[in-house]
């Protein structure tokens, strides 16, 4: 009796139901399933498998898409088998993809890729079983199924190459950044991470539970703990992994990926070593800094000017308590000038600027009472590019004779009521690139006409606050140093010239009503902390920005450490506390004393003539490196052999990972005639639950004690 032969088609048809069941189980239970090693190998073969079924299924579908092809003899012999074979390989590919998705992939692109892949598999299978019934009716479904295959590939590319991979060549190039505008992380570090790291560590593909496409992900770290420890090269996983031998499994990037260049490795190392700031500007770095040197070669800041620089002596002469003149960036011959102090302003002082008429490219006269002064004086500056007159006292006659300055690129006239004649003058300034006209009383029609007359100008009419209220960016604090001997000058600024900056130096939180309004540079003569916020009508006040300032104090006759710092962070031992050298925002710089296991305890011996009214402690806070505020501060004084607890305080603890920063704890000494003072700082013994290193011991870092 002859055996019946089982055809290959029958085997493949039955296998389809196996793939249906297996894929359905994985689709529902992949997150809780334990994947055996042999299936993990299959999962990682997903990129190798996927091209074959695409060719087979699309080849079979072409017979229904092309007119009359399904009536040909070739169709009856080839098309059904191509579909059947392609559907089977689609099922295997879908199963491999579901297994691979368990290895750290997530996000919207993965969701759509999975379901489009399943529809391709299911659709191809059903198409095969129903293709003999109503062939003419299958032309449109075949087109839709082919479109689904294309979308599956698109979302798959989004997972492996990023969501903008397909259309990236069509996107407009980002505007060039100047050195004055460049930020260390955004313009030096992030491009490296984007090109060499994000393909494996971003939304949709989070290997090792580490996301590198967002700042929060870098700060949080991955399953191995903190990825970046600011200032700590030895313990930062980023620096460890990029320096591992190429053959090591944990080397980053993997050896099958494009490797970092030596220059890119140097940038990442210098960034972490200098504090791993996410908002520091390149221009705030010392010129000799490695990152500044690299940026100066990379960015086009530096618009070249063909005029000579003004002498330092002349700049010093022009700088007064109501006027500030600076180069726009270090060593630039071009100058920017701002006036402060409305009461001290005299329009006649503008004649002083004739001596820098060639070099002046930016002039800020916000809120200044210009009286009856003609604005024709602006024509004296042939290279003036930026002019700010926000809320300046100008009458209608002055504005209606506003000069047409051909070199001017940016003009700010916010807070000034503009007449139609003035608008006509402004509309003739065709070289303007930016125009700020907040609160100028213009109608919708006037705004539309001005936009039409200046189509190439970016015009900002401000935010009316009718629908949404947005927060302002915080102001910036500029100070030459933190530690000073006699006095220190600090400047506050904001990218929107018309906002009001309120500040405090007495420890209180600045508000929009009672805190002093910033008008001119602030001079301080004692230690403290400046806190500042920006406010404007129709906006939410900005977040607070702060900076400490420290007056070098009296040096005790004798001082010593009663507990020893960690050997890795012992600076110059007790000499560190009174060396008058402010430590950098980098705990590995050798200028800090670090304590973790034991509290910091220092003893200071004083002479009778040393009358002390204030004691301040300079600290470093860097939560990403486990450096927190002390949990308790104790200051004990001795007089006539008897001790008194002067202060026992629990400083406010951190509630999130912040930027690396210097802080100052100041304490008043009510009874100044102490023979000896003891200072104790207790480090946090268990990091809070929100921290990546929850439960671990924290650190206290100290570099100066100031007695005044």
UniProtKB/TrEMBL annotation:
- What SUPFAM superfamilies does the database record attribute to this sequence? RNI-like (SSF52047)
**Membrane-crossing segments per the record:** 12-36, 48-66, 78-100, 112-130, 137-157
**Cross-referenced Pfam families:** CHB_HEX_C_1, PSCyt1
- The name under which this protein is listed is Chitobiase/beta-hexosaminidase C-terminal domain-containing protein
**Keywords for this entry?**
Heme, Iron, Membrane, Metal-binding, Transmembrane, Transmembrane helix
What's the superkingdom here?
Bacteria
Residue ranges constituting the Cytochrome c domain according to the UniProt record: 176-276
Note the InterPro entries from the entry: Cyt_c-like_dom, Cyt_c_Planctomycete-type, GH29D-like_dom, LRR_dom_sf
């Amino acid at each position: 009796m002859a055996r019946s032969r089982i055809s290959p088609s029958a085997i493949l048809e039955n296998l389809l139901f196996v793939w249906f069941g297996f894929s359905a189980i994985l689709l529902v239970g992949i997150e809780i399933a334990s994947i055996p090693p042999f299936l993990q190998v299959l999962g990682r073969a997903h990129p190798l498998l996927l091209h074959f079924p695409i060719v087979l299924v699309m080849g079979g579908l072409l017979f229904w898409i092309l007119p009359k092809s399904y009536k040909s003899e070739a169709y009856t012999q080839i098309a059904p088998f191509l579909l059947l074979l392609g559907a089977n390989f689609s099922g295997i590919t879908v199963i491999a993809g579901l297994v691979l998705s368990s290895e750290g992939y997530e996000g919207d692109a993965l969701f759509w890729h999975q379901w489009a892949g399943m529809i391709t598999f299911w659709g191809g299978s059903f198409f095969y079983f129903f293709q003999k019934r109503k062939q003419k009716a299958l032309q449109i479904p075949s087109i839709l199924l082919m479109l689904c295959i294309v979308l599956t590939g698109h979302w798959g590319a989004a997972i492996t190459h990023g969501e903008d991979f397909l259309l990236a060549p069509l996107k407009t190039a980002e505007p060039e950044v100047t050195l004055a505008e460049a930020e260390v992380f955004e313009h030096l570090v992030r491009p490296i991470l984007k090109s060499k790291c994000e393909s494996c560590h971003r939304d949709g593909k989070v290997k090792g539970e580490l996301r590198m496409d967002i700042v929060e992900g870098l700060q949080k770290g991955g399953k191995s703990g903190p990825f970046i420890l600011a200032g700590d090269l030895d313990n930062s996983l980023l620096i460890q992994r990029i320096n591992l031998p190429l053959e090591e499994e944990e080397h980053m990037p993997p050896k099958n990926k494009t490797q970092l260049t030596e220059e890119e490795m140097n940038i990442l190392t210098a960034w972490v070593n200098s504090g791993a700031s996410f908002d520091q500007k390149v221009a705030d770095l010392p010129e000799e800094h490695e990152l500044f040197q690299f940026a100066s070669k990379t960015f086009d800041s530096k618009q070249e000017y063909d005029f000579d620089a003004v002498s330092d002596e002349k700049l010093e002469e022009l700088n007064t308590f109501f006027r500030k003149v600076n180069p726009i960036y270090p060593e630039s011959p071009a100058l920017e000038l701002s006036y402060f102090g409305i009461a001290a302003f005299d329009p006649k002082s503008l004649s002083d600027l004739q001596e820098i008429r060639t070099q002046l490219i930016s002039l800020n006269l916000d809120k200044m009472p210009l009286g009856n002064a003609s604005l024709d004086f602006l024509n004296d500056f042939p290279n003036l590019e930026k002019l700010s007159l926000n809320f300046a006292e100008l009458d209608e006659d002055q504005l209606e004779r506003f000069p047409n300055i051909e070199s001017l690129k940016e003009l700010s006239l916010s807070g000034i009521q503009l007449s139609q004649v003035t608008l006509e003058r402004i509309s003739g300034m065709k070289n303007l690139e930016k125009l700020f006209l907040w609160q100028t009383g213009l109608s919708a029609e006037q705004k539309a006409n001005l936009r039409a007359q200046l189509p190439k100008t970016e015009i900002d009419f401000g935010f009316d606050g009718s629908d949404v209220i947005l927060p302002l960016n915080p102001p910036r604090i500029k100070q030459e140093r933190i530690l000073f001997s006699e006095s220190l000058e600090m400047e506050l600024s904001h990218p929107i010239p018309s906002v009001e900056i309120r500040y405090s130096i007495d420890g209180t939180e600045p508000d929009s009503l009672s805190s002093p309004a910033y008008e001119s540079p602030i001079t301080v003569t004692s230690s403290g902390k400046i806190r500042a916020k920006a406010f404007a009508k129709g906006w939410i006040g900005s977040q607070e920005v702060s900076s400490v300032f420290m007056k070098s104090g009296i040096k005790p006759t004798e001082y010593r450490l009663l507990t020893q710092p960690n050997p890795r962070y012992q600076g110059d031992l007790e000499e560190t506390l009174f060396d008058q050298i402010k430590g950098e925002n980098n705990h590995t710089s050798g200028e800090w004393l670090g304590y973790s296991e034991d509290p910091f305890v220092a003893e200071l011996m004083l002479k009778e003539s040393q009358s002390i009214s204030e004691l301040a402690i300079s600290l470093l806070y860097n939560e990403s490196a486990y450096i927190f505020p002390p949990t308790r501060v104790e200051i004990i004084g001795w007089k006539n052999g008897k001790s008194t607890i002067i202060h026992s305080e629990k400083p406010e603890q951190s509630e999130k990972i912040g930027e690396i920063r210097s802080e100052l704890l100041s304490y008043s000494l009510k009874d100044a005639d102490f023979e000896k003072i003891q200072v104790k700082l207790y480090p946090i013994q268990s990091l809070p639950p929100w921290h990546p290193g929850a439960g671990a011991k924290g650190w206290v870092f100290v570099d100066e004690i100031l007695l005044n």
